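Weekly sync, protein design subgroup
Attendees: M.S., D.O., the rotation student, P.L. (late)

Item 1: inverse folding check
M.S. brought a backbone from last month's batch and wanted to see whether the design step gives back something sensible before we order anything. D.O. pointed out we never logged the input encoding, so this time it goes straight into the notes. Structure tokens as presented (430 positions):
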């Protein structure tokens, strides 16, 4: 149906174009032909006058006049002497007899005398010519319709074939086969369309792969704490007198793990759905960071972690404090999780012009160059082996990315394997 439409559209366009050309041709070759012919004859008379004027005293004048009469059918005679030859055509009504166009002109001779010449241009009737041209136009119209049809078929084939091919591949893609390859050729636009679709298919396949991995990880992550919680609760139920605070601690830890997993997933889905709104207020960023670091310090102190905060003055920011704290918290938690043997994490606040830059520095294992471009993607985890203490959702950094993007800020990471990482973000300060 679409193919038909395209074909007809091209056909209608070409026919319209041909019709326009034919109308212009028709007008010039039939309606205006006689007037144009007379106009051209007048121009020829003017040219003849100029020629005669130039050669009025020349011995060659006679030859020139002869040539004019012979080749241009322009007869030049002294004004008074001449009566123009009447070319009568038998059986023609009086008013359709051939006409002449005349013009009188004064010339000055070498000796100062003046001479008056009349230029007569014969005007041949064009009726016969018009009917010949009309016949030709009928033939040309036929040929043009034929050519337009052929051209319409060729053009629409040239366009619709690659589109059909792309459509077929898109249908395969829609069934979930992300290996589909789009091969559009012929036009730059079609080539670009197929390149875009290839990229889309690649992205979809990546998301699909990550989704599968996440499902595998999440189901594992949910099942393990749940089974821990169930078995400890069961034990507390069966042996209430043997319950120690470590037992309830395990239940609390596992419940926390579940909460953060579910929270991360809720956060990222609200960011992706575009329903997360910023509640911007002017607040003391330095103070807010200090509080978060102190709270974290308390939490990890018993494990021997050392958190340092380097800063000069207090910086104020117009931003969503809760969200910026969440982004910072994610970076801080990652730095602690992946910190090295020195168990030290340094947070550094610096000011660069109107920007405030926050760096979270650890001396841990670092990230390989091949992983670096991907760590900000959803569900991406470098550590694919299920090593329980370091297990994460793979959503932390993509939440950071979304939050900083929403604030029109910048973020990044510098990392070297074996030496550690510097995760940073910077925002416009007030
Ligand atoms: P996760 O919940 O797995 O930590 P993130 O999105 O926060 O998810 O991080 C993605 C990956 O980036 C992590 O799995 C980890 O391998 C790597 N990563 C993040 N921060 C650091 C860091 N400070 N040092 C080394 N690797 C890190």
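Designed sequence read out in the meeting:
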């Amino acid at each position: 149906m679409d193919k038909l439409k395209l074909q007809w559209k091209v056909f209608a366009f070409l026919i319209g174009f041909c019709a326009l050309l034919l109308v212009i041709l028709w007008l010039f070759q039939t309606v205006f032909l006689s007037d144009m012919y007379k106009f051209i004859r007048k121009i020829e008379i003017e040219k003849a006058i100029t020629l005669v004027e130039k050669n009025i005293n020349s011995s060659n004048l006679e030859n020139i006049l002869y040539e004019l009469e012979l080749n241009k059918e322009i007869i030049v005679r002294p004004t008074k002497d001449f009566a123009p030859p009447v070319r009568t055509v038998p059986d023609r009504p009086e008013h359709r007899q051939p006409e002449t166009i005349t013009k009188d002109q004064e010339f000055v001779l070498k000796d100062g005398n003046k001479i008056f010449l009349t230029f007569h241009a014969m005007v041949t009737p064009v009726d016969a010519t018009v009917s010949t041209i009309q016949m030709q136009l009928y033939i040309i119209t036929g040929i043009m319709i034929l050519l337009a049809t052929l051209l319409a078929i060729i053009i629409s084939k040239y366009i619709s074939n690659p589109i059909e091919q792309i459509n077929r591949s898109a249908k395969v893609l829609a069934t979930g086969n992300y290996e589909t390859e789009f091969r559009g050729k012929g036009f730059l636009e079609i080539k670009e369309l197929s390149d875009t679709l290839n990229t889309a298919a690649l992205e979809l396949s990546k998301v699909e792969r990550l989704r599968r991995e996440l499902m595998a990880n999440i189901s594992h992550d949910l099942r393990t704490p749940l089974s821990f919680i169930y078995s400890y609760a069961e034990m507390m139920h069966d042996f209430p007198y043997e319950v120690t605070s470590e037992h309830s601690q395990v239940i609390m830890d596992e419940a926390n793990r579940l909460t953060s997993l579910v929270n991360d997933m809720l956060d990222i889905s609200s960011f992706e759905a575009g329903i997360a709104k910023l509640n911007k207020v002017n607040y003391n960023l330095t103070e807010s960071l200090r509080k978060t670091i102190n709270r974290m310090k308390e939490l990890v102190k018993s494990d021997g972690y050392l958190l340092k905060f380097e800063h000069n003055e207090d910086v104020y920011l117009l931003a969503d404090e809760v969200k910026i704290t969440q982004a910072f918290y994610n970076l801080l938690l990652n730095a602690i999780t992946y910190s090295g043997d020195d168990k030290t994490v340094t947070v550094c606040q610096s000011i660069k012009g109107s920007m405030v830059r926050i760096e979270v520095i650890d001396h841990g294992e670092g990230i390989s160059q091949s992983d670096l471009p991907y760590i900000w993607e959803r569900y991406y985890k470098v550590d694919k082996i299920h090593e329980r203490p370091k297990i994460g959702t793979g959503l932390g950094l993509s939440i950071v990315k979304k939050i900083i993007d929403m604030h029109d800020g910048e973020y990044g990471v510098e990392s070297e394997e074996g030496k550690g990482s510097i995760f940073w973000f910077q925002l416009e300060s007030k």
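Discussion: The chain has three domains: 1-83+96-175, 188-270, 278-428. The first helix runs from residue 2 to 31.
Action: P.L. to compare against the previous round before Friday.
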